[in-house]
Structure formats: C-alpha cells, structure tokens
Write a structure and sequence with these properties.
single chain, alpha+beta, nine-stranded antiparallel beta sheet, elongated
Length: 216
C-alpha cells in the first residue's frame, strides 16, 4: 500500500517501551504482512521485514484494547482505532473531497489489528500503549480542566443551576428515586450515598474487548 514508507525504527532516544517481533498488522480487514511492532513514547510504529511500515501518532488514536473474541477475529490481538484514513481510502477521500464537505462532522476511522505470534505478550503491549498514550493527553480535555479564575461565566452558572433544579424536580416525581440522571441525585439517593460516590453494580456483559482504554 502506498502509505507504507521506509524509516528507521524508534529506539531508546524516543522512549521505546515495547518491541514485539513476529506481529502481523491488519488494516480494516486487509493484512499488511508480518513485522515488528514498536511501542514508543513518541509514536506507535510497525515495520515489515523489508523496512517498510507506518507510524501512528498518539493524538490520533481514539481507542486501543486487547481483543480475545474469536468470533470477531480468529486470533487474539491488540486492537487500535485511529481517527485518520490510510491507503486506498485516503485516495478516495481526495477524489470525493467536495462531497465530503457536507459531512465535515464525520471523522474518518481506521481500524488496526496487531496480532503477535506470542499472544502472551498482549498484556505487556496493552500496558505499554496505556503508558505512552498517557503522555499525550487530549488538548481539548486539558483546556476544559484549566481554570484561572478570570473567565468564570456567572450567567452561564446561573442557567446551569436553574437546569439542575428543574432536573431535580422531575426526578423527585419519578417512580424510582434511586436512579440518577446526568449525575443529579434525588434526596433519597443523597441519603443512600452520603459519601458522594455511587458504584455501578450492574453485571458486566462479556464483550469483544477484555481490556480497553478509550483514549479521547
């Protein structure tokens, strides 16, 4: 595929955390071959035996998980979802650029599967991915958490309080006062959860991903 390029593999200078040989790369269901996966602090890279490969920047990775569901894919692997287009999809994107202008809100998605020959390495691969991803937080999340005390919108806060009161009034009339909506607790639930925390005891349904980390 045209997006495969030749480049030196990341080393210790780029914070290499995990190097996994004999790893097959699959993009949107199409096999790219077997090579080595490099999980570094700077980027996620894969190179085949001829030195051709690709790199993924962490800010573009929206999800990574260990998939053990053999019904979804015949081999256990590290699943990575990326907000970008690659290969033939990228060419088609350029050709249909005018049509896509009307769908600007739809982000492109690419699905990578990294299948190591040694499936026992999946946990180490997942852990390394989590550690490296944490070094690249979403700038939008950072902006939303920053508060310097100068841009506090009193009017917006008052509107929020009014909305909160309306929601509490609606909840108080509900048949079951134990349910929470949008993080708002009724008076009964406040008494039940005096420590300010609620633990979801709903049984977890077994899904495709045993480990999953939503990155953004």
């Amino acid at each position: 595929m045209s997006f495969l390029k030749s480049f030196p593999p990341p080393g210790s200078a780029e914070g290499l955390r995990q190097q996994q040989p004999d790893t097959e790369a699959v993009l949107n269901g199409k096999g790219l071959g077997t090579g080595t996966l490099y999980i570094a602090e700077s980027r996620l890279s894969w190179l085949d035996g001829s030195g051709l490969g690709f790199s993924l920047e962490y800010p573009t990775i929206s999800l990574h998980a260990v998939s053990r569901d053999l019904n979804a894919y015949p081999r256990e692997h590290l699943y990575v979802m990326v907000n970008a287009r690659f290969g033939e999809e990228s060419k088609e994107s350029d050709a249909d650029e005018e049509e896509e202008d009307s769908d600007d809100d739809i982000e492109p998605i690419a699905e990578f599967r990294f299948v190591p020959s040694d499936k026992s390495a999946l946990e180490a691969m997942f852990t390394a991915m989590c550690e490296c991803q944490a070094l690249h937080p979403d700038p939008e999340d950072e902006d939303s958490d920053d508060y310097d005390g100068e841009e506090y919108d009193v009017e917006a806060h008052a509107e929020g309080q009014a909305t909160l009161e309306r929601l509490e009034g609606m909840l108080s009339q509900s048949v079951s006062s134990q349910y929470n909506m949008a993080g708002v607790r009724t008076e009964d639930s406040v008494r039940d959860y005096e420590d300010g925390m609620e633990v979801d005891t709903t049984p977890t349904v077994a899904g495709q991903f045993e480990d999953a980390d939503v990155d953004h």
